[in-house]
Amino acid sequence: MKKYSWVLALSLAWGISAQAATVRVNVINGTTGIIPNIQEVTLVAPMLGMQPLATAKPINGTATFQNIDMNAAPALLAEGTYQGVKYSAVVRENTLPGAEPGSYATDLEVYEIAAKPDDSLHVEMTYFVVTAFGDSLYIEKEFRYINNTMPPLTFKNPEGLIRFFIPQAGQSSTAVDFKHGTMPLKTFPSMNGEQASLPNELKPGETKIHVTYRVPFMGGSGALKETFYNDFDHFHLYSRPPSLQVVASGLSNEGADEAQNLTIYAANNVKAGQTLNMRITGSSSANMQPVLQPIVGSTQTVITVVLALLVLAIGLSYSFTHESNSDPDLTAQLTALQETRQTLLKQLNTRQSDTDIVEKQKLEKRLRKIYQRLQEHNAL
Known about the structure:
With 380 residues, the chain is α+β, with helices and mostly antiparallel strands. It has helices spanning 2-17, 309-321, 329-349, 357-376; strands at 20-29, 41-45, 51-56, 62-69, 77-82, 85-90, 92-93, 104-110, 112-114, 121-133, 136-147, 153-155, 162-165, 175-179, 185-187, 190-192, 195-198, 205-216, 221-227, 232-240, 245-247, 252-257, 262-270, 275-281, 295-296, 302-303. α3 (329-349) packs antiparallel against α4.
């Protein structure tokens, strides 16, 4: 074994040094198609505590980074700020024909700003779930914002573009997730009475806002209200258990789904400023199914509602007993780690021969770091 130990050590040292790579970031204005005025682009290494790794000033729309240690940074993000909004892109190996071997590249796309949304911004209430459990009503609702501006624009307003209702009784237990991309991010709304607002900008594409809270429910009877800050053509409300009844003007009962252990209600043509005053009666349950399967409403639209009661209770508690990172770019950073993990797993599966042992060890080392970081953020 000693005969080959020095060869292995030399190969490993060469492999590590060979990971010093060139990274090119092409900066693009997705609104105008011209080169945007960005002062600098930063490479961020999620595995190194989300800290900046290097910065470069774009020249003719391209920022170039030399001698980037890809072993020290198993995953990289390119970040740039344009008109006060930070944008990120995952750095990947450059596989284009004629590309320099071992080089990496990405396109960092930014957009012009609009302060006031137009008809291109569509808002939906994906679902509204009311569950009676113990002495509380657990509320879970999700809003979906679709920014279809053409050419694409980012909506940003310091007064807040995202608004939703949280009753006074539920504000101490509120948990809010902001999701643009693949990873949800815990955030905290600003309150003005019972109106909650988020300062987050709405970039092109889809953004989801997931809201949970609980309110008291004593003696099998109570009141619940919901004020709307957007127009909704249609939405469904689901109550659990089936013995729980919801009565309100403008809310129609569409029947029970025994398989899902719930009752389905529907509301149509809801207008901004309207308040739905609901009367809740019935008994609570201490034995609810942890997950609701796909639900089919009267419009035959399949909605997947995930309501894990135990998980919800733990999540509400966790939000107020642990520090929450409200930096929206954490979403992109965790996404970069997940994408890099998949790439490395594919590369690892192709290393079959004994001659690949050094490369396999390097890949396994990078994967261990990525799994550790993802586990810290419950993003495995």
